[in-house]
Request: fold
Amino acid sequence: MDPRLRAAVDESVSWYDDLFALHGLGCRISDGLWIGLGPPPPLHSAAKTVEPGVDPARAVAAVSTYEHCSVADSFGDLHLAGEWDLLFEARWLHHPGLDRPVSLPSGWRRIDSREQLSAWTARHGTSDVLLPGLLERSGFAFAGRWVDGALVADAVTHLGTGVVSLSNVWAADAVEDWPELVRVVAALWPGRAIVGYEHGESLEEALEAGFRAVGPQLVWAR
Reply:
């Protein structure tokens, strides 16, 4: 397996572990499948593959208690059918990061107060997902860019093993500056490679900024 893909999937699992714990939920990994031990937070899957080749029937059985939920297909090989619909198809991304010290780009700063985080999550509709307790967890770092007192761009980063994930990217003008985002991550987490997943225009913009697509990431929903 491409080690960049392995790093991206493992970091996603780490994000899930930490976020579920914040919401008071446990989890377990069994035979290549990560399973949440309770109804997942909004915008998150109830189960996700952590190794290729998982039996689709096992994935379905793992979430059988939920009428509506999603399953993250981390290697694009589950091929769920019947009542399951493909919610989206994305690509895992990897960027080697910057090999030089940098400061936060102009207008960017780390979000470190509940008031700032509230404004941040309001932009994404994630107030009930990204709870204030994340500010007290050293592995998470939220960043925003302000112009004339208005929040115009933001992102969240999460520290994994040797890599940092970049997600929840947003820009007021819908034009995400991915080279600038790379500098944001490098300023917050020096010397770390960057992983994540994107689709559509965001994927194309990330690739133009030096990210590499390293594998498929599908999400199935019912």
